[in-house]
Amino acid sequence: MENNGFKSGFVALAGKPNVGKSTLINALMGQKVVIVSDKPQTTRNRVNCILTEDHYQIVFVDTPGIHKPIRKIGEYMVNIAINALKGVDLILFIIDTKDGLRNSDLRVAEIVDKSKIPTILLVNKVDLIKDKEKINLMTEKIQSLSSNIVKTIEISALTGKNLSELKQSIIDLLPEGPQYYPEDMITDKPSRFIISELIREKIFHLTKEEIPHSSGVVIEELKERENGVLYVRAEIYVEKKSQKPIIIGKNGSMIKKIGQLARQDIEELFERKVYLDLYVKVRDKWRDNENILNNIMEYKVEEIKD
Ligand SMILES: Nc1nc2c(ncn2[C@@H]2O[C@H](COP(=O)(O)OP(=O)(O)OP(=O)(O)O)[C@@H](O)[C@H]2O)c(=O)[nH]1
Ligand SMILES: [Mg+2]
């Protein structure tokens, strides 16, 4: 097949939680596709984000942060992240200059090294750090651990610093290849997944301590009504009875806020009116329950099988 110089490939993000993987993907995509928060372990599934231009198609693979799992959900997440690197054309390995290097970064470095896939090391959040020496020491340490790093770029996913240079480097490193996805497709995930993520994002933004991480969102019903309104019924899972009133809030104020903000995002994305019905369900220790996880993390199941 003649590709006429069209370039394409899969570009996976790798890094510990909270380094800015999802923020970077949204910045490179030029629109919000994946959810972001200031709390670690926001991303729980692999999400392909597709950027198509005249001469190339980049499929960014967002992944959960690689960490030492405590619960079963963490094991799923790390498995998903590691498996998402298999067979990709390029890896973007992100470190966080603000947080410095930790054991998880060294673990990621080892995984990246083993993959033998060409890797760009991204030294992120440089907007927060003036200490050049610190940045250099971090960079050298990681470079010494991952022999497949072909380039290192200091970036800020938040301010956009050096992102056009990064995009050009990605394109340069991609092979000639086919257009994998239709040009108007921005993610491989179904509407249900995107909607559940937008709801979960609001919980991450509005609640604190153990609440965001104890919460999960499942879409129970999604249908278009005759009047064109998109009807969504979603269940928010929490782990303990005591967490339910926190999600609901005083006189229902918290769940109302979650619903309002999520609805706005969903309406914008789907360009139609949305009716969002939210329920809170206590699911005892759901994060260690494989039956529930296989449902909530359903989008990874084939991924995990080798
Ligand atoms: N100052 C600054 N903050 C950043 C930058 N990039 C990301 N952040 C912030 O870092 C936090 C984490 O960003 P995410 O994109 O959710 O990080 P992630 O790596 O996807 O995290 P997980 O999904 O938990 O693995 C958010 O509060 C972002 O706004 C940056 O370049 N500069
Ligand atoms: Mg993320």
TrEMBL record:
Residues 207-284 form the KH type-2 domain. Residues 41-45 are annotated as: G2. One of its GO terms (molecular function) is GTP binding. Residues 155-157 are annotated as: G5. PROSITE patterns: G_ERA, KH_TYPE_2. Its main location: cytoplasm. The keyword tRNA-binding does not apply. GO terms for biological process: ribosomal small subunit assembly. Keywords: Cell membrane, Cytoplasm, GTP-binding, Membrane, Nucleotide-binding, Ribosome biogenesis, RNA-binding, rRNA-binding. GTP binds at residues 15-22, 62-66, 124-127. It holds the Pfam family MMR_HSR1. The keyword Phosphoprotein does not apply. Residues 62-65 are annotated as: G3. Residues 7-176 form the Era-type G domain. It is found in: Cytoplasm; Cell membrane. It comes from the Bacteria. Monomer. NCBIfam families: era, PRK00089.1, small_GTP. This is GTPase Era. It comes from Petrotoga miotherma DSM 10691. The lineage of its organism: Bacteria, Thermotogati, Thermotogota, Thermotogae, Petrotogales.
